[in-house]
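User: Predict MFS transporter's structure from this.
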Amino acid sequence: MSVQAQRPLPPPASTPSGAPRTTPVGGPSGRPIRLGLRANLAQFSLLVAVNALVGGMLGQERTVLPLLADRVFHLSAYTGALTYILAFGATKAVTNFFAGTLSDRYGRRPVLIAGWLVALPIPAMLAWGPTWGWIVAANVLLGVNQGLTWSTTVIMKIDLVGPARRGLAMGLNEAAGYLAVAVTATATGAIAAHWGLRPQPFLLGAAYVALGLGLAVAAVRETREHARAEAAAHLAPPGADSSPAGTDRGKEGPATAGVHARAGDPAALSTARIARTTSLGDRALSSASWAGMVNNLNDALAWGIFPLLYAAHGLELGRIGILAALYPAVWGAGQMLTGWWSDRIGRKHLITAGMLVQAAALGLVAVGTSFPVWAAAQALLGAGTALVYPTLLAVIGDVAHPAWRARAVGVYRLWRDGGFAVGALIAGILADAYGVTTAIWAVAALTALAGITVAVRMYETHPRS
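Assistant:
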């Protein structure tokens, strides 16, 4: 298999070969570079706050937009009503892919700033758009915003913390984002119940954009040199199979050094080859990509279908907002534990359990008819997602070499957020043809299948396991 040369990520000149990952390294800026959560706590905490604002941009839609489609724009077909999720998911998936490549080429910070610039018109389009086409267009921009900003904050945190606390870092990152989704969904539901569906709920989004852009420009620092420092100190374990060629690795051991080229600089791997490895070749990377896609497929169901189901059973707007927030709240808070937990016991079993728990939760939504049952189901769905979400990102960080890890994260997130688009299509078509309950059961079955696939196919990637 030929390898198309890319511009390599050169290690800092002052780094000796095989230096410990926490050894200070002089970067081009002249500042010492250290890996680790404690060593980079201030910048890491800032990025957590930035990602909370990114999550808030998504949360402004979770309660209000499905009801806007029904009550303001009078879209009776589920397939039509879910076009905004389809537009969001497809755009975000593609943007994720390019975000990794762009952040390797131009740096993480410029990509983060670009993502916030794209977000500037979104709140106004949602608040005052005269037709449903404006709402769909706003969600195209939201997909670009989320793909650039969320992907970049993930990559930057992985850069900063190094390998030892990767699961914890991803747990904190995702917790901040999805707790903000939950808080904003609750807030917009309450605002909508008091003042109406538009424009007041979307003024929160305008504040998030202003604050996020200001922090990205004024306070966030570039982290690409941290990835280069880790790459310079990166050593393959003795006797490990380091080929990214896509062959079956059999009974793999821990992928502590990631997937390398057999010869030459891992930074020389082409983006196409990395995409093949992440999507199909490596059993852990490809299993994580499949599980991530199915996870967001059922999230599309929760986002677009559940509020309409609750409204059809007579729940008032405030209670719908609580249910819409409960799922991402448990999901967000739980990740602070599950990311750390995966650093202790490994990734594979948490992912398997999480997918099966999600499937059970979806089944409970399908059979439920009351607020208490749906609240329990939403909490269970959040717990299952918390087991899965940061752990899948940690798998990518475990396996991918630092020189091409950003691109691998982009490919994984391409598949994962493509689940929004797939979910919108599947849920909309099945709900229109056979009813909402059938659509929910079908997604539950796919989620259980994803958990079984991980159990059978994925190898454990964490070095301590």
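The chain has one domain: 36-237+272-457.
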